[in-house]
Design a protein that fits this description.
about 375 residues, alpha/beta, Methyltransferase, Cobalt-precorrin-4 Transmethylase, Domain 2, seven-stranded mixed β-sheet, single chain, binds S-adenosylmethionine, 2 domains, five-stranded parallel β-sheet, Cobalt-precorrin-4 Transmethylase, domain 1
């Protein structure tokens, strides 16, 4: 008996109109659809009136499920694999099943469609001739910096997936590790609030230290070239202290601990950190330093033994790495350009825009 075929079916990353005719046909014709989340995919299938049976296939059952599905395929059934969004196997489950099928000589057929990093890169305005896709960067700063340091000399545009609560930290770490570079944060692609925030790493770190700005799904794209001091506009430019404090707060530390850690990362004394934070806040808000809402000098007790015990090796390493960083900050002048609204967007369940919401997509230039 002939073996079945494994179809890798790409699905929309937001806008349901991005499903292909071929994907719909294959999803209708196969015996079974292996889904990262059956309830999520059921929403998609219902939208298109597809009644094919589904089965879960995710990182926690990948091993056992790959064996079961391979058996079905060997028995002659055709199976499609889909993830929640985009292309299965790309920072998503799929690899183990695909490997098993390769070993069993089962035919594997890709049904191409959306993938967030390709869409982000294509529209980023950064060079597309050579690029490196790194999936998700490590969550912890020390590991993230180590990964970025490995990529410092690569003559390729760098692309990463990133979570909203980590984007400011990732941008700050990239600035410190790779030097000042042009970058793009492509957010909410194909959805109502699609945005391309373009600017320098330190400017974007500042922008996304605001939790309101750092929302939704995002792809981080970094240029291959480190700007010269002249191009960067300030010989001693570095990541803003307030942006770094906000990013650390977003990881769960309170303001006092966040400020202390950021100061240590940047190799600043208590007084220097306080002065810099006050100056940054005053500059951002264009108001007098006294009313900038910065934690008082007394509150940043760098000799606080209790706090010191909370510094683990990770944080200590960050502090050591950060000692290389220059110590003053260039402030950005943000500007937002709104492009005309797109024709009616059809979004996946849970992402449907509010009725009457006619907001246009935004392209934010941070420079
Ligand atoms: N397999 C998917 C693909 O081909 O793009 C990627 C899955 S990965 C688990 C999810 C990550 O992709 C998100 O955290 C985000 O970084 C990125 N992503 C997915 N959809 C996106 C969107 N609409 N806009 C921006 N980034 C998106």
């Amino acid at each position: 008996m002939a073996t079945g075929t494994l179809y890798l079916v790409s699905t929309p990353i937001g806008n349901l109109e991005d499903i292909t005719h071929r994907a719909l046909r294959v999803l209708s014709e196969v015996a079974l659809i292996a889904c990262e989340d059956t309830r999520h995919t059921r929403g998609l299938l219902n939208h298109f009136g597809i009644k094919t049976k589904t089965i879960s296939y995710h990182e926690h059952n990948e091993h056992a499920r790959a064996a079961e599905l391979t058996e079905l395929l060997v028995g002659g059934a055709s199976v499609a694999i889909v993830s929640d969004a985009g292309t299965p196997g790309i920072s998503d489950p799929g690899y183990r099943l695909i490997r098993a099928c390769v070993e069993q000589r089962i035919v594997i057929v890709p049904v191409p469609g959306p993938s967030a990093f390709v869409a982000a890169l294509a529209a980023s305005g950064l060079p597309t001739d050579e690029f490196y896709f790194g999936g998700f960067l490590p969550a912890r700063s020390t590991a993230r910096r180590a990964r970025l340091a490995q990529l410092r000399g690569l003559a390729a545009t760098l692309i990463f997936y990133e979570a909203p609560h980590r984007i400011a930290g990732a941008l700050a770490d990239a600035r410190d590790t790779l030097g000042e570079r042009e970058a793009v944060v492509a957010r909410e692609l194909t959805k109502l609030h699609e945005e391309f925030a373009r600017g320098r790493l330190s400017d974007l770190a500042l922008k996304f230290s605001d939790a309101q700005a750092a929302r939704g799904e995002m792809v981080l794209i970094i240029d291959r070239t480190t700007l010269s001091n002249e191009e960067a506009g300030d010989q001693s430019a570095s990541v803003s202290l307030s942006a770094r404090v906000a990013a650390i707060e977003a990881e769960g530390l309170d303001h006092r601990a966040a400020l202390k850690r950021a100061a240590r990362e940047l190799g600043l004394s208590r007084d220097a950190a306080y002065r810099r934070l006050v100056a940054e806040r005053a500059q951002q808000q264009s108001i007098a330093p006294e009313s900038s809402g910065v934690t008082s000098n007394e509150e940043i007790d760098m000799n606080d033994q209790q706090q010191d015990r909370t510094f683990n090796e990770d944080q200590q390493q960050m502090f050591e790495n950060a000692n290389d960083a220059p110590s003053t900050t260039r402030q950005p002048t943000p500007g937002t350009q709104t492009v005309p609204p797109v024709a009616s967007d059809t979004s996946v369940a849970g992402e449907t825009p509010a009725a009457g919401d006619s907001a246009g997509k935004t392209a934010t230039q941070v420079d």
